[in-house]
Amino acid sequence: MAKLKRRLTMLVVIAAATPAVLGGCTTERKPGTRPAEGAEGWAPPELIITPADRASDVPITAEVGAAVKNGMVTAVRITDDKGVEVKAEPREDGSAWVPISPLQPQRTYSAEVTATGAKGKTVVRNTTFTTMPKSTKPAITSTLYFAGNRTYGTAMPVTVAFDPPIPKQARAHVQRRLFVKTNPPQPGTWSWVSDGSQVYYRAPDFWRPGTTISVRAALEGLPIGKDHVGDADRKATSTIGRQVSLEVDNATKQMSVFRDGRLVRKIPVSLGKPSTPTSSGKMVIMEKHQYTTFDTRGEPNGGYVVDVEDAQRLTWGGEFIHSAPWSVGDQGKTNVSHGCTNVSPAAADWLMNITQVGDLVSFKGTEVQLTEGNGWTAWNVSWAEFVKGSALPVPAGLRPAPTRVPHSGAVAGGSPTPTPTPSVAGG
């Protein structure tokens, strides 16, 4: 199958939350008496901040960390060496404040952090640090498959791909710089493809229609292992649209189309013949093309060039749903394609008008199973398996696993190459 050189450049926003107040306990005392300074409930806050004062060669991905005892952080102010304020947002756990844009190399920054105790006592700590020169190490290319101002399907995973892949020992460090915020809140987690070439973010269930998702991949200048740095800082915000899903059964050669959980149409299909079978598994629509060309010269079982209409990509390996007027007589009866899902021109046109990038497409009963990382395979495993792929601890509320992956019609309320390289199959 030939390679279709296509990559979406996408941007990515941080989740902000307010740290919880640590309340102090009080003991009964006689009127007019006052506990000694330092007694429980009267102890002043203890505050340690990072980077350490006068630190140098600090990465431009530096965050202002704050460890507090007997209180909470109530103010953070970060300024550069010209006195300009650097805007920052807190991590969900309140452990650090993350600048909303990368810091600049070889600049000096100051941070003033105020903590307030349960009885109103405050403590202020300051630090000044200098960032490192612009790195000369090669950058790991990251691609965020989540664009801004789009409408996506309810199965859309936030996907970041890496070239070269991220080594296992560096994945937690990278994952800490990937942020997702949903409105209304629908918490999820990241999960890595085993070879480190992709990482997916999703919730236990499909996104609720109307959800706004904001993403940030804050990787520019991030040290990754000993030999690489991150390449860019990307942000994007988009919305989840109506719920649409497709189910294809090889036994019947029929595609069932669901909208908002209701079956709206059945479409005859012709799948991959035994020598070039279609994969069974849960896929996600990745791209939609009104017109494209399948060029399979030099690929196994290929050697042809054909123009097709109304094509929707499902895998990096070249499996598409597309219009196939040449196989209408076989659709619903016999598999004759090179791995694609053939439908009639009228059905392909209708599908293009109802589907969205991010819709789930499930196949069953074919000769081979979908390979991890061949497309956006975040839904091809159970939630219990998905969370095992996180390089960081999964929040307690997300650990209980559903007994099964949600039915594709329900409304929700490793590729061996470093970065998936699209190739085009014919069919």
Characterize the structure shown:
The protein has 427 residues and is mainly beta. Among the domains are: 46-131, Immunoglobulin-like (Sandwich), CATH 2.60.40; 243-381 and 409-424, L,D-transpeptidase catalytic domain-like (Beta Barrel), CATH 2.40.440. Helices cover 5% and strands 38% of the residues. The chain has helices spanning 171-175, 345-354, 383-387, and strands at residues 2-3, 46-50, 55-58, 64-69, 72-80, 85-86, 88-90, 96-99, 108-116, 122-131, 139-145, 151-152, 158-163, 178-183, 189-192, 198-202, 212-218, 223-224, 228-230, 233-240, 244-249, 254-259, 262-268, 279-284, 287-295, 305-313, 320-323, 341-343, 360-364, 368-369, 423-424. The strands form seven sheets. Strands 15-16-13-11-19-18 form a six-stranded mixed sheet. Strands 23-22-21-29-24-30 form a six-stranded mixed sheet, with no helix packed on it. Strands 3-10-9-5-6 form a five-stranded mixed sheet, with no helix packed on it. A hairpin with a 6-residue loop joins strand 26 and strand 27 (320-323). This is L,D-transpeptidase. It holds the Pfam family YkuD. Pathway: Cell wall biogenesis; peptidoglycan biosynthesis.
Principal-axis shape equals elongated
Total count of strands: 31
Would you tell me the overall average pLDDT? Answer: 87
Whole-angstrom Rg: 26 Å
CATH homologous superfamily grouping of the domain at 243-381 and 409-424: L,D-transpeptidase catalytic domain-like
Instruction: Give the neighbour order of strands across the main sheet.
Output: 15-16-13-11-19-18
Specify the structural class: mainly beta
What portion of the residues fall into strands of 2 or more residues? 35-45%
Within the CATH hierarchy, at the fold level, what is the topology of the domain at 243-381 and 409-424? L,D-transpeptidase catalytic domain-like
Major β-sheet profile: 6 strands, mixed
CATH architecture of the domain at 243-381 and 409-424: Beta Barrel
> Segments where pLDDT lies below 50 for 5+ residues?
1-36, 407-425
**Distance from first to last alpha carbon:** 11 Å
- Using the coordinates above, name the CATH class of the domain at 243-381 and 409-424: Mainly Beta
- Tell me roughly what share of residues is in helical segments: under 10%
Number of helices: 3
